[in-house]
Design goal:
Shape: globular
Structural class: alpha+beta
Bound molecules: fe (ii) ion
Low-confidence stretches: 1-40
Largest sheet: 14 strands, mixed
Number of strands: 22
Radius of gyration: 23 Å
Order of helices and strands: HEEEEEEEEEHEHHEHEEHEHEEEEHEEEE
Length: 537
């Protein structure tokens, strides 16, 4: 089923002034101050805050060769309704410098934080130099945020010797500490790709309600999220985590979402609860607004009611073309009632889709024009075939993954072959385990061509401490020999990419149930240019 999306809004009209246009006229080093102006009558002129107004941290995202987005959300009492803010717009000053001490300021300005957006600020900084570090800071009424690091991408098409980036997601607050984010902060990556499950919308689990220990108790908001205020409050709780704030402050994030930003295993206008679609769209609109408010993304990603366009492409010099995909909004509903199912004929229906027709066309057109050495899909659910039933006589995949839309995977692989893409790397999350595997043209024939590789990043905290592996997971790997690695601990993946070689390091933590868990590299794989297969590092 293909969704129609209304024409893109010109959101510049009601957000901050488009400074990129100014800067082209004034020169990249110009200092300027500008305000949105439209709401000047309703601006709270001299705000006085009861507490530190940057309690939700600051962040950067969506890097480009000439800039990035910088984000904050004014919330002196982050867990209270409206973040403790009055229903008035406020003006927030921002600056970008070439040094961490914010002494060599190259740009500054003023942005308006509107109550309609929960006092979030998204400034699109342009006119910067490519391929270098910058630092940014917000101030309001004499209150100063910390200074944080961002980084521009190299010029499109230019030679790049090395790219280092991280992949993370699935950060259920109750399940453990976000220690992996502290490690990510120390990495000072070029960027971090977040595949989704930034929050969990479920009713909060209390200690004693499940076998898995509840490591952190969520205060005062136990129920499943439905309204904008519900979602805002959950984001606020997660955003107050110091390790998460440190990771955001260390590098720009490339954000996407998975299911739990809205509802477990939602698909298009179908909710987990099978709510009437017209009503689920109200909830989806609230969830998308809250997502936008809290993410360092460009104004083009502002939702319009229940619709949003988050799929987009990032080009890193001549090295990487990264396609960030949306595998939730335009997909077919999970077949055969979802879950792990054997003999699901519906999964083979040729009309099933994971991306929808428009996104598929955009992706495949991008393949045809691919100039970069490595083509990357940054997405959510596992692409490679994976039998979830350890009984060798029963093939039962998960209906939520690309196994539940076999024709969509066949079309993807056909497009990869037609474009003669030599170096396809798929980055995935969702399952709360590390996996590495090869994408076979025919998964039933292991001698068939390998079209690319897939690296699945485990969760930051979801699932608790976990374990390395067990007998039933070992059996699953035997059934699917294209899957080369499995680990069920928490962590992230570090990718180091050069023109000749891609290396993926699977980072794991011994524990997330305690603070100061120890990180180690559990396994590293490499892909050599033109080889399309995994080798041990
Ligand atoms: Fe998750």
């Amino acid at each position: 089923m293909t969704k129609r999306f209304p024409t893109r809004l010109d959101v510049d009209a009601f957000c901050t002034v488009n400074r990129r246009a100014f800067l082209h006229g004034l020169g990249a080093s110009a200092l300027l101050t500008a305000t949105g102006g439209l709401f000047s009558g309703g601006v709270w002129a001299s705000p006085v805050f009861a507490a530190y107004p940057f309690a939700l941290g600051i962040a950067s995202g969506d890097p480009a060769p000439d800039g990035f987005v910088i984000w904050t959300k004014i919330a002196p009492r982050p867990l209270e309704r409206s973040g403790g803010m009055p229903r008035k717009a406020v003006e927030v000053d921002w600056s970008v410098a070439t040094d961490e001490r914010m002494q060599q300021v190259v740009q500054k300005g003023t942005a308006t934080a509107h109550p309609e957006l929960g006092h979030a600020v998204h400034v699109e900084v342009g006119g910067l130099e490519p391929g270098r570090d910058y630092f940014y800071q917000f101030t309001i009424s004499g209150e100063r945020s910390r200074a944080a690091r961002a980084r521009t991408l190299p010029p499109a098409g230019a030679p790049v010797a090395q790219l280092r980036f991280g992949v993370a997601g699935c950060q259920r607050y109750e399940d453990g500490h976000f220690t992996a984010y502290r490690q990510i902060a120390a990495e000072r990556f070029d960027f971090v790709f977040h595949y989704g499950d930034y929050i969990y919308e479920n009713r909060v689990v209390r200690p004693g309600e499940r076998p898995l220990p509840v490591i952190r108790v969520i205060p005062d908001e136990p129920d499943e999220l439905y309204t904008l205020d519900d979602y805002r409050q959950r984001y606020a709780l997660y955003k107050t985590d110091p390790d998460l704030q440190a990771a955001h402050g260390s590098a720009p994030f490339v954000m996407s979402y998975d299911d739990h930003e809205v509802d477990n295993n939602w698909a298009g206008d179908i909710s987990e609860e099978n709510t009437p679609p017209a009503l689920f769209l109200l909830r989806r609109a609230a969830a998308f607004q809250a997502w936008y408010e809290h993410m360092p993304v460009r104004r083009a990603l502002l939702p319009r009611g229940p619709d949003i366009l988050i799929y987009r492409r990032f080009t890193v010099g001549d090295l990487v073309s990264m396609n960030v995909l949306d595998t939730r909004l335009f997909r077919s509903d999970q077949p055969c009632g979802d879950g792990v199912k054997a003999d699901c004929r519906e999964a083979l229906d040729p009309h099933r889709t994971m991306l929808g027709e428009t996104q598929e066309r955009w992706l495949y057109d991008g393949f045809k024009n691919a100039r970069a050495r490595w083509t990357v899909l940054g997405q959510q659910v596992v692409v490679m075939r994976s039998d979830r039933n350890p009984d060798p006589k029963v093939f039962a995949p998960s209906m939520d993954k690309w196994d539940g839309a076999v024709a969509a995977r066949d079309r993807l692989f056909a497009a990869v072959e037609a474009a003669r893409l030599a170096n396809l790397v798929v980055l995935t999350g969702d399952v709360h385990n590390h996996w590495a595997g090869e994408l076979k043209k025919n998964f039933d024939d292991q001698s068939s061509a390998t079209l690319g590789v897939e690296f699945v990043a485990t969760s930051i905290s979801s699932g608790g401490d976990g374990f390395d592996t067990n007998d039933s997971f070992k059996a699953l790997l035997t059934q699917d020999p294209h899957i080369k690695f499995f680990n069920n601990q928490r962590g992230y993946v570090r990718h180091v990419v050069t023109p000749d070689r891609w290396q993926a390091d699977f980072q794991v933590l011994d524990k997330v149930s305690v603070r100061d868990g120890q990180v180690s590299t559990r396994k590293s794989f490499v892909v050599d240019n033109g080889k399309s297969g995994l080798a041990d590092a």
